[in-house]
Amino acid sequence: MKKILTIAGSDCSGGAGIQADIKTITTHRMYAMSVITALTAQNTIGVSGIMEVDADFVAMQMDAVFSDIYPDAVKIGMVANSDIIKIIAKKLVQYNAKNIVVDPVMVSTSGSRLLGEEAVTALREELLPIAALITPNIPETKMLCGIEPTSEEEMEQAAKKIFTQVYQNNGRDGAVLVKGGHLIDSAVDVLRDQSVTYVYHGYKIDNQNTHGTGCTLSSAIACNLANGLNVYESVKYAKKYINLALQAKMNLGAGSGPLNHMAANTWISKEILD
Ligand SMILES: Nc1ncnc2c1ncn2[C@@H]1O[C@H](COP(=O)(O)OP(=O)(O)OP(=O)(O)O)[C@@H](O)[C@H]1O
Ligand SMILES: Cc1ncc(COP(=O)(O)O)c(N)n1
């Protein structure tokens, strides 16, 4: 049994954050563990409150997990502030954590800030370089490199620029996935590693219930890495998971509703596990 740790914020409505991650990991038939960085009061319409966890208590949670059940992969989502980022980075290095995927969550789809403005530098300098893969969406890509891509070519330029800043300039290895879910007419994603650019030509599924797609994608990638797939294949199968979960068209809540993980289950069990 593979063990996956998610370090993220709680979404009480169950669509994003820790809850989306645990559903994704469980659907992959793996064992899910969680280190919670913040509680959010939110639903499909928006975020009404955030309570950040003390950085010391984040450290206690990480010690409790790593000293007992060592994870095969770690997914990181909402990290709230720079103190939490610094302690997470320190503990991941201390425990020599493997297969780290960072979704650099900054602003919710509904427009609320989930990362303090002061924390972007700590995220860029301390957490991103130790990840095997980082998965910025279009607005996060702009925050990281100044380019707000509107086409596949601009996504390639941005992915290359972020790779250079985060990995090459720090003498580290890793990969960048610029996600195109916010593009109007396609759901193309672009992966950049040390030498190659891969383009995933996704078509846009007609479903406005996309709350938690980024959380789900990064958790599915972490599961696939834990299963021994390389980064390119891990992203490929994670996108298939998202497509199935979106195609099932569950419609909960008055706003942008959650994904249907039960629908993704069929494909995962047939293609990956059997
Ligand atoms: N309507 C859609 N049809 C197909 N794939 C989609 C759709 N919307 C998003 N995706 C895919 O979902 C994944 C997440 O992309 P997105 O850019 O939405 O991330 P995000 O903004 O971090 O997600 P979140 O909504 O959780 O914040 C990507 O692989 C993207 O291509
Ligand atoms: C706790 C938490 N983590 C991440 C997101 C981003 O997801 P989305 O962009 O779909 O709102 C969120 N809303 N809440």
Automatic annotation (TrEMBL):
Biochemical pathway: Cofactor biosynthesis; thiamine diphosphate biosynthesis; 4-amino-2-methyl-5-diphosphomethylpyrimidine from 5-amino-1-(5-phospho-D-ribosyl)imidazole: step 2/3; Cofactor biosynthesis; thiamine diphosphate biosynthesis; 4-amino-2-methyl-5-diphosphomethylpyrimidine from 5-amino-1-(5-phospho-D-ribosyl)imidazole: step 3/3
Gene Ontology molecular functions: ATP binding; hydroxymethylpyrimidine kinase activity; phosphomethylpyrimidine kinase activity
GO biological process: thiamine biosynthetic process
Domain Pyridoxamine kinase/Phosphomethylpyrimidine kinase: 11-260
Pfam families from the UniProt entry: Phos_pyr_kin (PF08543)
Keywords, in A-Z order: ATP-binding, Kinase, Nucleotide-binding, Thiamine biosynthesis, Transferase
Reaction it catalyzes: 4-amino-2-methyl-5-(phosphooxymethyl)pyrimidine + ATP = 4-amino-2-methyl-5-(diphosphooxymethyl)pyrimidine + ADP; 4-amino-5-hydroxymethyl-2-methylpyrimidine + ATP = 4-amino-2-methyl-5-(phosphooxymethyl)pyrimidine + ADP + H(+)
GO CC annotation terms, alphabetical: cytosol
SUPFAM superfamilies per record: Ribokinase-like (SSF53613)
UniProt enzyme class: transferase
Enzyme Commission number(s) from the entry: 2.7.1.49, 2.7.4.7
Family of the protein in this entry: Belongs to the ThiD family.
Protein name as it appears in the record: Hydroxymethylpyrimidine/phosphomethylpyrimidine kinase
